[in-house]
Amino acid sequence: MNTRGAVLVANIITGLALGFIVTSIGFGDYAELNRMFTFQDPRMLYAFAGAVGIIVVVFTVVGVRRVPTRIHGGVVPGAVLFGTGWAISGGCPAIPIIQVASGYLPALATIGGVVVGIWLCRWANSRYFQLDRGACGL
């Protein structure tokens, strides 16, 4: 198998494993996400904090160094839109796919919103903003 095929297979297996884990611990459930965003249940926030702590340790051990650079002009408004969409829809871009796979069909509206949002971002950037594409590849 060529390298691209191996990477694709590895991504599919990893994605299925992540989807299974996320669903089995309840993080694909809209009500669970709502409890996190309304600070009724900090369990999910603790999971995120633990993941950040683990990656900090791994990056330190592996020796990953990142030099701080100027913040891209679209980071702050993009983060606000992303967080707002996550809170409203009950999931970041990966969670609606897990929700649809679990039979929660209203998540199709979220997936449609992501597609429309990407299109609107590209349209607005080409017409009004002309932001530096950087590594994002708008």
Automatic annotation (TrEMBL):
<feature type="transmembrane region" description="Helical">
    <location>
        <begin position="104"/>
        <end position="124"/>
    </location>
</feature>
<feature type="transmembrane region" description="Helical">
    <location>
        <begin position="76"/>
        <end position="98"/>
    </location>
</feature>
<keyword id="KW-1133">Transmembrane helix</keyword>
<keyword id="KW-0472">Membrane</keyword>
<dbReference type="InterPro" id="IPR007272">
    <property type="entry name" value="Sulf_transp_TsuA/YedE"/>
</dbReference>
<feature type="transmembrane region" description="Helical">
    <location>
        <begin position="7"/>
        <end position="25"/>
    </location>
</feature>
<dbReference type="Pfam" id="PF04143">
    <property type="entry name" value="Sulf_transp"/>
</dbReference>
<protein>
    <submittedName>
        <fullName>YeeE/YedE thiosulfate transporter family protein</fullName>
    </submittedName>
</protein>
<feature type="transmembrane region" description="Helical">
    <location>
        <begin position="45"/>
        <end position="64"/>
    </location>
</feature>
<keyword id="KW-0812">Transmembrane</keyword>
